[in-house]
Amino acid sequence: MGQDRLGQLKPSQLRVLIAVADGGSFSEAALQLQLSQSAVSYAIATLEEELGVVLFSRGRYGAVPTPVGQQIVDRARHVLHLIEDIYNQANLAKGFDGGQLRIAAFRSAATHILPEVIAQYCLQYPAIAITIAEYDDRPDVEADLRKGKADVGITYLPHAPDLEASELTRDEFVVLFPPDAALSAPLTWEALAAYPLIMAPDGDSCDAMVIHHGRQFGVELRSTYQIRSDATIVNMVAKGLGAAISPRLAAEPIPDGVQVYSLPTPFFRTICVATLANALLPPPVFAFLEMLKAAMAED
Q1: 206 vs 55, 94, 113, 125, CA distance in Å?
Q2: Beta bridge pairs of residue 260
Q3: What is the pTM assigned to this prediction?
Q4: Residue 22 and residue 7: Cα distance in Å, rounded?
Q5: Which domains does the chain have, with CATH numbers?
Q6: How high does pLDDT run on average in the chain?
């Protein structure tokens, strides 16, 4: 009887349960898990029916775990951690004869840094299954490491203290101006601050670094437009709508005619590869880290 009831609980249901608790609503959980809201509602309703208890109080302001719901959410986290540990132990035993390598990276690193190394890795270790999760910014990368959804993260400094990181390369922040912009060299902070700027929405890590850098020289950089996509920002610059400050990797490929300047005081982000501190890395992950570091050292 106990085994039959255990078999009815699915890891996918537990992930939905945790996502609703963390996000505070069914809609936020659906967005995070890339599911429809109806699929999230069905998963929770099915779980409540199987357990015979109400897990969330629903209201106009979202979903809040009931007392018993919170206890079950805590246990669900523990169960998923144990399941992940089972897979990790299996990967350790399989070595290079199987297993997986899970990478999380911010988008420009996934585009410009990983492909060549992945190609080399696949030739040497064809039995290893590789997945890459791409994100707009580093917080999602580091969150995947903490949740056990990634073995390796490509992020940039400063990183959180619960991660161990090794520097891969330095990526300069460049200023992109429209083809018809009349500017004198070298670029001055005053000229930059006077030009309409296209930036990412509030909270973007790279923009926060640049704004802080400008403040050190008495300059307050403010956006005229806020756009999430790097490609859209670059194309808006090419059409003459404003200037943009971007890491060079994120700006590539830069359209013909777009003018590229260094900041008045040059500034760089340090791209690094990170793992959870004190993590027990299976051989496929360790081999990838060594291959990645060696490839970047040659560039």
Answers
A1: 39, 39, 18, 35
A2: 176
A3: 0.70
A4: 25
A5: 2-89 (1.10.10.10), 97-169+270-298 (3.40.190.10), 171-268 (3.40.190.10)
A6: 90
